[in-house]
Amino acid sequence: MSSNQIKVELTSAKKQKPDFANLPFGKIFTDHMFVMDYTEGKGWHDARIVPYQPLTLDPAAIVFHYGQTVFEGMKAYLTKENEVLLFRPDQNMKRLNRSNTRICIPQIDEEFALTALKQLVAVDRDWVPNVEGTSLYIRPFIIATEPYLGVAASKNYQFIIIMSPVGNYYAEGINPVKIAVEQQYVRAVKGGTGNAKTAGNYAASLAAQEVAEKSGYSQVLWLDGKENKYIEEVGSMNIFFKINGEVVTPELNGSILEGITRDSVIHLVKHWGLPIVEKRISINEIYKAYQDGLLEEAFGTGTAAVISPVGELYWNDEKLVINGGKIGEVSQKLYNTITGIQRGTVPDPFGWNVKVEDEEIILAI
Amino acid sequence: MSSNQIKVELTSAKKQKPDFANLPFGKIFTDHMFVMDYTEGKGWHDARIVPYQPLTLDPAAIVFHYGQTVFEGMKAYLTKENEVLLFRPDQNMKRLNRSNTRICIPQIDEEFALTALKQLVAVDRDWVPNVEGTSLYIRPFIIATEPYLGVAASKNYQFIIIMSPVGNYYAEGINPVKIAVEQQYVRAVKGGTGNAKTAGNYAASLAAQEVAEKSGYSQVLWLDGKENKYIEEVGSMNIFFKINGEVVTPELNGSILEGITRDSVIHLVKHWGLPIVEKRISINEIYKAYQDGLLEEAFGTGTAAVISPVGELYWNDEKLVINGGKIGEVSQKLYNTITGIQRGTVPDPFGWNVKVEDEEIILAI
Ligand SMILES: Cc1ncc(COP(=O)(O)O)c(C=O)c1O
Ligand SMILES: Cc1ncc(COP(=O)(O)O)c(C=O)c1O
C-alpha cells in the first residue's frame, strides 16, 4: 500500500487548542485519528484518516472480554526550525509486531503504518506543542473487534492511532521520583506477556500502583515473578543503576518490556565509553551497593518521561536515598542528550530522528 | 436501588430466533442488554435495559489500553415445567466483586445486580432455548470508559450484561477432550491476576491455545508460573483427577480461578461421602499415578461445559490415555447430577437454583 491509498476526511469543526503551557498528560486529543480494519481472508484494508470520534463496537467484541489488544507509545517533537521530528518510530512499529505475535494479532506492514502515522501527524501538525518540555504523544493500538464469547483469536481487528499534546508525565518533571519496591503483587513472569505491550500487564499493575501512591510513591519497582528477588522494571519505565562507576540494567529476560529509551540509553552510554552491563540484578545487590556507598545513581527510562531520576527507593521498611535525592550526573547528561536529539538541538549520531516531511502534508490534504 | 429503578426500553424490532437445535457458542445475542454507568463521586447510576446495541466509546477509553475490565459467565436453564432457573448466580456476583477489587474497579451492589440480571432474563425469556443440552449463557462485564492515556484506575465505568443462547462449548460435548500440558507459556503467577476473571489472563492464553489446537488438542493444562511444575487449571475450566479412589483438585493458591462448578463438584463429592482433597499437585505425581495404573479419571469443570472428561493428556511427548479415553464413573455422575439440578430434574440439596419469577417479567415490561 502506498501513502495515497489513505483516504483523508478532514474535520469540519476543528477543536480549540488547549494552552500548550499547561498541558495534562493524555487527556486532550487532536482533531484526527487514523483507522484501518482487518478482516480475516482480506487482510488489513480501508486505511483512513478521519475526525477524532468514538469507536462503535459490539458489546461482545473480544477486546472487552479477553483483552486481545496491543499498543505503542511514541512522541513527535517540534524543533526551533519548526520541523516535526519522530524519535525512532520504526522501533515502535517493530515492537508492535512483536506484541502482535505474542497476542495472536495479525502482523501490520510496519512501513505502511509509519507512513500513515506521518500523514496523521502532518494533518494535525498544529497540535505539536511548541513549549519547552511538551510534545505530541502518539498512541497506535490494535483491538480485536469480532463479537464472540469463546476464548479464541479474533477474526477482525482495528488498528487505530490517536494523538495527544502532552506536558510532563510525572508531576515531578525531571525532579527525582520516589519509587517503592513491590513485594506482594507481580506484574509479569517468564512465559507470560511481560515483554509484550498489551493491556493486561497494566491492569495487573493498578493495585500495587494505588498502594504505592497512598504512601507517597509515584511508581513501583517490580521484582521477578518466580523468585520475587530480581529487578525487572518500573510501571512504565525500564530501570538503570550506576554502581561504583558502572551503569547496570536488568537484561531482557522475556518478562520486561524492551524499552526504546532503554536501548537508546545503552547506545549512548557505550558511545561515551562508559562501562555498561545488562544482567540479572537482585534487589539485595542494590541494597548492598547502597550500604557500601556505591549506589551512585538510579533512573527510569521511557517515552513518557524520557529519563526520570530516582531519588528514593523504598524497600523492606527502609528508605534508600540515592545521590542525596538529587539527579545524578549521568542521568542529567542522558536527559540532556536524548531530549536534545529529539528536539534537534544536539547532533543525532545514530540517525534516530525521522522527519515528518512537508510533502506528506500535501499528500494528505 | 430496587428493581423498579431499572428503566426498560423494549426493542421495536425483535430479531428472528435462531434454530435452538443448532446453536453455536457465544455468537448469537438476545434482543436486550442491561447497562449501568459509574461516575466518580456519583457511584453507579442509570440502570437500564435497552435493545442490544453497539457500545460507543472514546478511542482513549482505558479498557482498550490498560485492560481494566472484569467479567462473569453463568447460565439460565429452561425446565420441563417451563420455569427459568439460574445456577448459583449469587456466587458469580460475589466473584465479580472479588475481581473488581483486584483490578481496582468499584464494587457493585451484588443484590441489585442479581435483580437486574433476573429482569433482563425475564425480558428475553423466549431466548432461553428449550432443546436438550442448550442454555442461555449470560455475560456480565465491567469496562473502564474514561478517556485517559495515563496508567491509573478509571474514574468512569459501564456494567453491562449481554446474553447468548448456546449449544455445547466443545464440539466434543460430553465426549472426552484431549488436553496438552503447557510447557512454554504461563497463564498466571502468584501475586498476579490469575484468580480474577479479567481480560488479560485470556489474552495471555491465546498463543498456547493456538499451538495446542494445531496439534489436535482442544485446550491446554497450565502449570504454575514459578516452578512450571504444579497443576493449575485448563483454559476456562478447573481440573480434577481421580487417583486410586480419591478425587483431587489443585488448591486455591491465588493464581487459579475459584470456579463455581469446582465448588459445586467439591460439595457434591463430599455429600456422596467420597474422599476428596484440595492440594498442590505436580504433573510428576499425575504421571506417576498414570504409570502405576492409578489415574482413574480426569475432568474439567466450568460453566460452559459443566463437566468435561479428559480422555488424553499430552505431556513430555507422551500421550496419557485416561480410562481408555472414555468418560469415568464419577465424571458421568457429576455431569448427570449438576445438569440435572440445573434443569430441575434432580433434587437440589444445597438450594443452588434461583428461579426467575414471573412477576419480574411483569415488573420489567
Ligand atoms: C512496562 C513498560 N516498560 C518500559 C517502558 C519504556 O519503554 P519505551 O522506552 O519504549 O517508552 C514502557 C513504556 O513505554 C512500559 O510500558
Ligand atoms: C480460567 C477459568 N478457570 C475456571 C473456570 C471455571 O469457572 P466456573 O465453574 O465458575 O465457570 C473458568 C470459567 O468460567 C475460567 O475462565
TrEMBL record, chains A, B:
Keyword Amino-acid biosynthesis on entry: yes
Gene Ontology BP term (one): L-valine biosynthetic process
Molecular function GO terms recorded: L-isoleucine-2-oxoglutarate transaminase activity; L-leucine-2-oxoglutarate transaminase activity; L-valine-2-oxoglutarate transaminase activity
Residues that span the membrane, as ranges: none
Modified positions (N6-(pyridoxal phosphate)lysine) in chain numbering: 197
The organism's place on the tree of life at top rank: Bacteria
Cofactor(s) listed in the protein's UniProt record: pyridoxal 5'-phosphate
Source species of the chain: Bacillus oleivorans
Similarity section: Belongs to the class-IV pyridoxal-phosphate-dependent aminotransferase family.
This enzyme's EC code(s): 2.6.1.42
Protein name as annotated: Branched-chain-amino-acid aminotransferase
Pathway membership, UniProt: Amino-acid biosynthesis; L-leucine biosynthesis; L-leucine from 3-methyl-2-oxobutanoate: step 4/4; Amino-acid biosynthesis; L-isoleucine biosynthesis; L-isoleucine from 2-oxobutanoate: step 4/4; Amino-acid biosynthesis; L-valine biosynthesis; L-valine from pyruvate: step 4/4
CDD domains reported for this sequence: BCAT_beta_family
Keywords: Amino-acid biosynthesis, Aminotransferase, Branched-chain amino acid biosynthesis, Pyridoxal phosphate, Transferase
Reactions this protein catalyses: L-valine + 2-oxoglutarate = 3-methyl-2-oxobutanoate + L-glutamate; L-isoleucine + 2-oxoglutarate = (S)-3-methyl-2-oxopentanoate + L-glutamate; L-leucine + 2-oxoglutarate = 4-methyl-2-oxopentanoate + L-glutamate
